[in-house]
């Protein structure tokens, strides 16, 4: 995540001015994630300790310090609206549409994260499902808006390469976003204990790398391709 | 490793735009390695403690905390595909070939690292050999593709200096890559205990410095030489 941030920011001079804000935000998203993953790493290390070694196998026990999954939700509350804004900015829509889409998708996605948290910290399965369902309302709105909006935008891109990158960003968005509600369900379907916690953490981590770093590389590739097209366009007689 | 990163990034303005992404990634590889070597260093320090001093000799014993060699594999999972991509980028092949080679070699090398890990954490020798053999399949594919591809590419370089640097990169790649499977075998041939662990760590560390920092310097030299040739070419009447 941290390396992705540096990559995006070092690429700033290589794209035209119109795409620099999008690329700056792309790097901020992975920077915020880097910070929270350090917090999550430390919280995880403090929650478990190696109790004994039996042959090649280590036995791990709880230290009593809680593993704080709240860091993820604080991270998402900040990064998910920013992720949507970086995508909207790289599309280079008319200014009015950019502002209105940023507000609508930004607020809906923050609401989605906020509604997910009360369920995440619950052990009562029916309460978990209740908040999951509430959170899915803004989730469906955002994913549907993106899927439709990006499909329209694909045809308006300035080159076939840009169009195919926007199309890849569209599929990656839908795929990576849909991972989260399924990972959330790991505990809602009654799985419990250390294995469930481990699957949940591995699942969220993979989804985060896809939705932030890999998605960011696509945003950079779109910005880079569109910059090249615009620059070569300026050199033509028309 | 950290110093190499700073060197590569400070050299960014000295190469032409076409080679900046390659040089950015070269610095990211050594940055990711720096991070993991700090983790490896800390894990090593926590796993051993000085028990007593007897004349000039220190006696070291295990603290019970495991030495976590997993950091190397996480490092390789990220850096090995990136290393291959930096090499492909500095070759400046047609865009389609760049994308297809990056995917093929990137995925094959990630698979190679992933298949090595289950064997590395095993004490059963036959299981170690099983995973070593599986991991050698993508290894051979990558090394063979590089050796052949770089041989062809050497003749297409814009100057004799660039051609001899690409040829050096080719030998360094094959030589440093072939170190890893031999170091892996230190424990597979039945060596065990502190000495085997020490040889393994020293071997991997030397191979890493060659494959990342020294290799990176070659990438920089190629980018630098080709930039100079391209810039002087622009000044010629044709």
UniProtKB/TrEMBL annotation, chains A, B:
One of its GO terms (molecular function) is photoreceptor activity. It comes from the Eukaryota. GO terms for cellular component: membrane. The chain crosses the membrane at residues 21-38, 73-91, 98-117, 129-150, 162-182, 202-223. PROSITE patterns: BACTERIAL_OPSIN_1. InterPro entries: Arc/bac/fun_rhodopsins, Rhodopsin_retinal_BS. It is found in: Membrane. It is a multi-pass membrane protein. GO terms for biological process: phototransduction. Keywords: Chromophore, Membrane, Photoreceptor protein, Receptor, Retinal protein, Sensory transduction, Transmembrane, Transmembrane helix. Pfam families: Bac_rhodopsin (PF01036). SMART domains: Bac_rhodopsin. Belongs to the archaeal/bacterial/fungal opsin family. This is Rhodopsin. It comes from Polarella glacialis. The lineage of its organism: Eukaryota, Sar, Alveolata, Dinophyceae, Suessiales.
